[in-house]
Amino acid sequence: MTKADIWGTYESRLLRVSSHIYEHLDEELDSDRLAEVACMSPYHWHRIYRAMHGETLAATVKRLRLQRAAAELAASDRSVSLIARRCGYPNLQSFNRIFKAAYGLPPARYRKEGSHQTFQMVHEKEDRVMYDVTLRTSDETPVIGVAHRGAYMEIGKAFEQLFGTLFSRNLADPAARMLAIYYSDPESVAESELRSLACVTNGGRAAVDPPLQSAMVEGGECAVLLHKGPYADMRFAYRWLYGEWLRKSGRDVRDAPVFEIYLNNPRQVPPTELLTEICLPLKPVAST
Known about the structure:
Keywords: DNA-binding, Transcription, Transcription regulation. Residues 15-113 form the HTH araC/xylS-type domain. It holds the Pfam family GyrI-like. The chain has nine helices and eight strands. The protein has 288 residues and is an alpha+beta fold. It has an eight-stranded antiparallel sheet, with helices on one face. Helix 1 (3-23) crosses helix 2 and helix 1 packs antiparallel against helix 8. The protein is globular.
């Protein structure tokens, strides 16, 4: 068996583990059981997982559970105790402490005072400037990615598959930028039908095979909003960008999907320090 065959086997096995984690976040994720899912020795598979994903299995599970908890706190009325249990923390005090360490506020305060509140529509203060938006023109950009269908907050599953595949095929480029293209409007399309692409820039135009696919981010002018904070807050930033900035800007949107550029990595910085550029394609200004 060649080196490529060996890493290809690791790729398919660890992708099964990633899928299992995403589909069973509510359950006890026993490491021995996950080793069985991977069909790998429990003595070695943790090291291989870390090598391919850049973090330990325990760190992945903790990060994904807290990310989902933040989304539910921001967008649902589920009780904090229920959200804690869904994250595997029957002890509410433990959940409060761990959530605060990651997000800067305990869960109840995060729901009331978190950065997602910044973007809530405040009708009595319509002239309030919430965030600066800059205009930027860029060339078309080739990307390589993995398609995702379903809730945008779950696109992390496609990113796990993308990076695991790139690593196993020796296609990972440290200089590549991480992006996501969002083809559907979550306000008007059923969650199960939402389409997106988790991707990285492909300056070398590497040849791709499934599950990877090539795409192009169209060049042109974009309105760029820099968002700082958890991904769970992003939908409120979108509402402000479309509902306030675009309405008052006098600009028209181009027939191209919105995309996000991720300036840092959720594996390396806390959620409160995540930096994301939301890029809204604009039509050229009509000449007079």
